[in-house]
Amino acid sequence: MKRLSTKVWVLFVTISALSIGIITILSYYFYESIYVAEVQQTLEQEATNFAVVADGTVTDTFIEEVDAYNQYATTEIFAVRNPRELSACLPFEIDYDALISGEDRQRLVNGEVVVKRGYQSRFDRDVLSVIYPIKEDTRLNGILYSYVPLSPIRDFLQSHLVLVGVSGGLLFILFAFISRFILLSVLKPLHDLQKATEDFAQGNYGVRVDVHSSDEIGTLSTTFNQMAEAVETEDQRKKQFLATVSHELRTPLSSLVGYSQSLQQGSLDAQHYPEVFQLLASESARMKRLTEDLLAVARNEDRVLAKEPLVAAELVHQTVRIVKQKAEQRTISLLVELDDSLIIEAEEQAMMQILVNLVDNAIAYSIEGKSIHIRLTSRQNEAIFEIEDEGVGIAPNHLPHITERFYRVNEARTRSDGGSGLGLTIVKQLIEASGGKLEIFSELEKGTTVKVTVPLWKEEKA
Predict the structure, then answer these.
(1) 18-35: per-residue pLDDT in tens?
(2) 77-91 pLDDT, tens per residue?
(3) How distant, in Å, are the alpha carbons of 15, 95, 273, 436 from that of 19?
(4) CATH level 3 topology of 305-461
(5) Helical (H) or strand (E) element with 451
(6) Gap between the Cα atoms of 41 and 128, Å rounded
(7) Where are the alpha helices (DSSP H) in 59-150?
(8) What are the φ/ψ torsions at residue 353 (nearest 5 degrees)?
(9) 3-state SS assignment for residue 209
(10) Cα angle: 201, vertex 207, 210; to 5 degrees
(11) How far is Cα 122 from Cα 421, in angstroms, rounded to an integer?
């Protein structure tokens, strides 16, 4: 397939050639229809003027006046008298047969003006002539023969056409080179964009194109760069995700495989069996939680929640009952402040997963003997769940990333307690699917506050 620049260049060159050809044709047309017609009109006007002077007769004085006129006129004109000789077609002063045919004579007798164009043997050249009858009543007394050679006009036309042709040819060549250069310059960004898309299709997501303008091509290049950057970012996230999943699974799998082989080979003392069995159970449970969390993340990406009216305070009470034992083990008090009148629009299972996960995190990162405040308030058409702990807090540089997959603030602690690093990712997905918003505020050594905003139930929907 031909390149776009070649196609456009061929189109420009073709248009240029057609333009030059049209100019040449128009020049010839103007010669034929305008210039020659104007010369013919001049000849007729001259003959008409002299015919008025002749007043029906051709005298010697009239012939002398016509001859005198030829001395400064650009055309040639002469008068012929002796109609008898003219009608008899006998040579007298001029060889009439070389100028006037029988048909011409008849038209002159009828009072018509005869216009002839072509070769005349009398003048041995191509001429444009006007033959004007001089009549007295119905009698033809003579003629006025006015003519101009066509060769100077044709020579001028030929010179003009040659000039037009040569100039047009030079302009054509110049335009061809200039248009080629301009097209290559203008279409170069498209060529670069094409090359970039080919590299992109081969998996080189880091390719970018230079943007040199703000026109449509520049906008297209900018859009391509944005798309490439988004795809590259997503590709890196995918690779990082797969690497993290592989790493997360490798640790428990290594433990399971290693201890299983030791048990199979009998290389472990029986006294270590309880410890080994506990470790195997713990690692198996850890793999199970990771697998369930991964499935939850994948499922929640396209999950549509079955929303219904729910008593928000009751959800909090259920959450407290679920996590109460864990809080008591760490001597952490759960302080609840609820607006019992609030009814939200959400899915019960999703909201319980959100609240349990957030309160469980607050317990895990709180200092023993401290308190966790759980509040439920409203604002306009929204219910606000607020969970505030008095824990270690989160550094400002970690806050923007804590809802990302597998992101951990404290790698060692999270791994030791079996966390997958997906809890807040799942929470954020569920909150957004519920039409709500997640906000996290934290300060090191002072604690963390998590706010979950979800829509209130509207009565008219019931």
Answers:
(1) 777 777 777 667 666 677
(2) 888 875 444 443 333
(3) 6, 48, 98, 67
(4) Heat Shock Protein 90 (3.30.565)
(5) strand 447-455
(6) 11
(7) 60-70, 83-88, 102-109
(8) -65, -40
(9) coil
(10) 125
(11) 114
Q: Please, which residues have CB within 8 angstroms of residue 236's CB and are 6 or more apart in sequence?
A: none
pTM recorded for the entire structure: 0.47
Residue 202 DSSP symbol: T
Tokens representing 396 are 């400002």
Q: Where are the alpha helices (DSSP H) in 266-372?
A: 273-301, 312-329, 348-364
CB under 8 Å, gap of 24 or more: what pairs does 292-296 form? 293/420, 293/422, 293/423, 293/426, 294/245, 294/420, 294/422, 296/422, 296/426
Which phi and psi angles does 310 have, rounded to 5°?
A: -130, 140
CATH topology of domain 216-297: Helix Hairpins (1.10.287)
The CA distance from 221 to 193, in Å, is 7
In the numeric block, the tokens 């540089």 are attached to 397
Inter-CA distances, 393 with 103, 108, 136, 207, 448, Å: 121, 122, 129, 40, 5
* Contacting residues for 365 by C-beta, under 8 A, at least 6 apart: 389, 391, 392, 448
d(CA 42, CA 115): 12
| Core vs surface per residue 437-460: b (16+ CB within 10 A) or e | ebebebeeeebbbbbbbbebbeee
- Residue range 206-260, pLDDT digits in tens: 888 888 777 777 788 888 888 888 888 777 777 766 766 676 667 677 777 877 8
Report CA torsion sign: 243, 249, 251, 255: negative
Q: Which CATH superfamily does the domain covering 4-155 fall into? A: PAS domain (3.30.450.20)
Determine the 3-state secondary structure of 215 from DSSP: coil
User: Residue 377 is encoded by which pair of tokens?
Assistant: 């308030």
* Domain boundary assignment for the chain: 4-155, 216-297, 305-461
Helix (H) or strand (E) holding 77: strand 76-80
Secondary structure of 182-198 in the HEC alphabet? HHHHHHHHHHHHHHHHH
Structure tokens at 356: 């349990």
Look up tokens 């995190």; give the residue.
361
DSSP secondary structure code for residue 391 in this structure: B
